[in-house]
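User: Please predict structures.

Assistant: First:
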Amino acid sequence: MAGVVYLDVDDEITSAAARIRSADGTRVAVVLPNGSRVATSRINFRLLARDALTNGKTLSIVAPDPATRALAASAGLP
């Protein structure tokens, strides 16, 4: 089963990780808006990926911004 987590522009990495952990299913699509704080660093995506792996979840990043998608991909997230 897959879950979807919609992040707000002002969500911090800690709240994003907590919301992903509590999402239903093992596959989680994370939807990031333009200007998301989470999308400012490759390290944020690496932290999310590691936390998801630890909790048995597979993440997919959905974002309208190509730079955000590129950062996520560089951290190993599709």
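Second:
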Amino acid sequence: MFRKILKWTALVLLVLVCGVAVATMSRQHLTYEAPYPDVQASADLAVIERGKHIVMVEKGCVQCHSPVQNIDSLLKKGEEPSLAGNKKVETPFGTIFTTNLTPDPTTGIGKMTDAEIARVLRYGVKPNGEAVLPFMQGQNMTDEEMVAVISYLRSIKPIENKVPDHEFTFLGKFARAFVLKPAAPEPTGSLVKK
């Protein structure tokens, strides 16, 4: 009798584990609806300088999106660290590689519209509708701050730097599927096949 109970318990646990694994993998490319903020980059030097200050100091974007190790010493010297991404960050959820924020059209944000960049910053949703992971600190930026940031990013030198895809552990994939969500929008229920 005990063997029979043990056998059925093991079978139920196996089915449960398989079900969680299948559900987790099937939810890796959820898409989200989010509005496109009505913003447009400016060529005004004061706006660009404000954007530089936000990126380099206030929001600290440079701390993650620069592959350079000595960021603080460069900033103290008045130099601008590259925003070419590819910083490798090891977490319990997997290995995260930061995005290239330069206006390079093939490996950076060069092909994105200003509204698409603003949508990523404000809502954490990429142009294809998937969530940006990990999340950034842009949700509470005003439109003026967003224009400044986008203007600055458009003004810097494009750097071709292909960044690898994130390498999530199963825990990371589970969190991505069921826990982590962008700042505001709810999933549309559709899946993007890759």
